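anyone else get weird line breaks when pasting these?? whatever heres mine. first is seq + tokens for prot A
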Amino acid sequence: MKKRFPKIVKLTLISVYLIFLAGATVRMTGSGMGCPDWPKCFGYLIPPTTEAELLWHPNKDYNKKVVIIKDETLLVAKKTFKSSLKFNSENWKPYKKHNYAKFNVFHTWTEYINRLASAVSGIFFLFLIIVSTKFWKENKWIPIISFIAFFLMLFEAWLGKTVVDSVLKPSVITVHMVVGLIIVALMLTLHYIVNKHKKTPKKTNKLFTNLLWVAAIFSLIQIALGTQVRQYVDEQVKLLGFENKQLSLLAPDLKFYIHRSFTIAIVLVNFWLFYLNEKLTLGYKKVNWIIVLLGIEVISGILMYYADFPIGTQAVHLLFGIFLFSIQFYLLLQSRTTKN
């Protein structure tokens, strides 16, 4: 089982990226409240496919905590029972965490798939911590990092519940993503530790390593700024409606302009990295991917602003920003432990 641990680490890391993709798709499509409760969806393990399933019906069996929509409000079954010919309010209680009571099958199943991705990732994390304990005598950092990442995933699950209960409060969503980035960093560290014996560059350079620190920190700052811009967009969408999302950046605030202008510094630092890697023949092939990802980030950002959020650009912008940080962080791990 220890021999398979590197593969388990890789699959677990991929599952985290899939959660980011699913979450970005949820926000891109406005499906965050597709399931108004958590962890179930309208009280079901498998959500409904039609609104009729959420309406009250006579002579129907209802399980405890099942949710229905009645008079534009959410009601929760107090117990398991079979309905009579007339609606009996004694069997129901209002859902008090919020007053969102809409059903859209596309939004519901988009959010449900997001939750499934998280559940699958949770299974990989369980395997991860179980197998990591076998390395305790060999390298204590392997189980320590594994358990920290696992507990942060549990915290993420709680944050997911908080996001729904707060009706997509932007600040909670921002914390949700930042914690996700910490998990990515931990998993990349674990991946590096268990694959240290594989091919790595033969030399490094102090300036190159320092620039990697700057590049990674800049990416974190940019992602944080990006979450603030997304928070502004989300607030505008709430006011204007999701169908008018293209109007949300007609009058952007200062954070947007800082986010856009900071891109220049990020491009310069990363092209400097590329130049040093080529000039000094350091052998870090992943630097080439940094340039590619930067190009995708810039293009998707331009399209969002000037082309009114074309479908997919928001998800691409977020996911590839995370990939950019991931490569910078992994190169930093390699550079710090490689001899001159």
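and prot B, same format (seq, then tokens)
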Amino acid sequence: MIFVTVGTHEQPFDRLVRYMDHRKERGKIGEDVVMQIGFGTYEPKYCTWERLISYEKMHSYTADARIVITHGGPASFLMPLQMGKIPIVVPRQAGFHEHVNDHQVEFVQKVAERMGTVIPVIDIDDLGQVIEHYEDITRRMSGEMNSNNREFNRELGEMVRQLLGGERR
């Protein structure tokens, strides 16, 4: 299952909702797609959807999903990260009247560059390829994250040893 959430911002994010519904309609996505569409004006015809969902439902959908696709609001992409999932993040853009400015684009790009924990999709036309190659993309990312975690743990261990006067337990 693919879970898509656009958050609760009052401006519609129909571009993402419509894109996913059309891919489902054309058979480009074989699995179920569940969407939280917020205040959008486009109502999906080929995907299961709700306007707003409870935290518990959001948690459940996120846990059950193979892929989570979110807008660029941190609260939406932090939940899958906390569950060990790598979300695809499609930021809302001012040019499409989805937000007041492009802060989501800037924030998502910085998180991707500095942390390497999200897959940013700035151009919606790239989303299909990212979905199709999700496992390959995340496998490479997971390897990099594990490597970073090992290095962090090594450095932390060294700092602790130095603080304890070089003693090892």
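btw re prot B: The mean pLDDT is 89. DSSP finds six helices and six strands in the chain.
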